[in-house]
């Protein structure tokens, strides 16, 4: 299958997702049975929500909309330009071990393997097992040559050439040992941070809250830690956060808020609380749900040194500095914004 055919198939999938997100149930022009797939995807979203309470309809739709916007012919061609040959004459089978912290968290790896011309063998997380297999069925309908290139396997993985595995720091150690004789990418825990200087606009701070609250803060691109100057006025941030006050009415979030607040109180920690979200000074990067950690910095030199110490643990940095990601953009990465700054396409092209 040529690279052009692979790109066209994924761009058609993106077109279907855009129609689906826009709630246009009429037949999608590019294929006959889009109504059937429309209903099927709606059902899979329902199943995903029922099996994982963190996967709310709004979060699933947010993930689907992100991919609808990314999967265009122009984006896909710009992404792989000068990195891939037209036809992969020596396709390998790549095993994917996917996380399940947010909806479709493994789709980029799935896309990368297939657009590179390789075959994919997928071990799903039990937390995210409904939507990706269904999108794979739509993709196979759009381009039948993908039919024998996509397999799902929840048993022991066998007959593969390389691996891309995502997990916690603990599971990563197991992966590194288990896959020591295979080429691979092993991803560990990462967290994202925001650097504030105290002169952010109201719009900046409101955008920052999207980076904090989207997916309940469960993604590696979710902001879990703030670096702020001495005497920072947290009232500014709390005013921006207030727009998310209704999140406390969601049971799983509320339960986590109550539990973590009780832990802080029993431990006699100092923290700021607005009734649905807490801010606590802490050296750690990873904060519990319904809270965020912060750390003071004295000057840019000290901050740069601190970030250098943490660089292997940081996924994204948000600030109003042009060298960092803009506020509100962590959950809408481009195709070339690779996890852990590892170019997946380059890795796959070398196999």
Output the keywords.
single chain; alpha/beta; Aldehyde Dehydrogenase, Chain A, domain 1; six-stranded mixed beta sheet; five-stranded parallel beta sheet; 12 helices; 15% strand
Describe the structure in your own words:
The protein is globular and about 60 Å long. The two termini are 18 Å apart. β4 (162-166), α7 (169-178) and β5 form a beta-alpha-beta unit. Helices cover 41% and strands 15% of the residues. It has a six-stranded mixed sheet with strand order 8-9-10-7-6-11, sandwiched between helices. Strands 3-2-1-4-5 form a five-stranded parallel sheet, sandwiched between helices. It folds into two domains: 3-189, 3-Layer(aba) Sandwich (Aldehyde Dehydrogenase, Chain A, domain 1); 191-318, 3-Layer(aba) Sandwich (Aldehyde Dehydrogenase, Chain A, domain 2), CATH 3.40.309.10. It has twelve helices and eleven strands. The protein is α/β, with parallel strands linked by helices and 351 residues long. The longest helix is centred in the first third of the chain and has 19 residues, at 3-21. It has helices at 3-21, 34-51, 57-70, 73-80, 107-115, 131-142, 169-178, 202-213, 234-241, 251-266, 300-310, 344-349; strands at residues 93-97, 119-123, 150-152, 162-166, 183-187, 191-195, 223-229, 271-273, 278-281, 291-297, 314-318.
